[in-house]
Amino acid sequence: MKHLRLYAISLLCLTAAICLQAQKDMRWSANYGKSVAVFGGSFSIHKESDTAKDYWVRQLNLKLTNYGKGGAGFSNLTQSHNIQHEVDIACSEDKPQYDIYLLWASTNDFTKANRYIGTPDDYTEADGYDTTKLNTQCGGINYCIKKIYAKNPKAKILFLTSTKCFRRPNSGTNPYYKGTYGMNSFVKAQIACCNRWGIPYLDQFLGAPFNEYNKSVYIKKDNLHLTEEGYRMLMNMQAAFIATH
Which CATH number applies to 31-244: 1.20.120.80, 3.40.50.280, 3.40.50.1110, 1.20.1260.10? Predict the structure, then answer.
């Protein structure tokens, strides 16, 4: 009887350990083990970003392919290589279909193409797919979405919004900024585009606890890019977002 009790206790402990491990590495998620293509600017490719991306991979056993490049934004005005171009490459005939396409918004539309936020109707059926609207952030987002679905109609598209931009301390960080072209307006437009198509998004502008008092810990001396600590502050919410959407 004593041996049976010990066996039962051992079995319960083993079951609990297995459940704890499953919970820890998120194997319960429908996205566990999926292939993911990542698009974005320097926030998605700087070596410090590996802190977050490696965490996603560990937790969700993801097969990650990164198409990001420094300086890229959704507008085709940000530079010759923009996120539209990244999606073109990933959706070419020689590339596989990915399970998840992750659009990681940078601050480049805000800093490099600032007057061109656009509207959620840019480059859609509503304007006859007006190619002049590809110079707006929204036009670029809609282009990427259209291109991805043409490649893989069953694709899951996820969106990470921009974080704060400390190079313009008020217009880049203040969610209540009243000007027309503040970072808050760019993020609101990103979210509006996602809502238009029913695409899940993670609001990193409001969700990340970066501010003028703690930026020396989380933001590099360039007042823009994240330190490893900055990515550590994002990685849990990012992994949970990917796991649950």
Answer: 3.40.50.1110
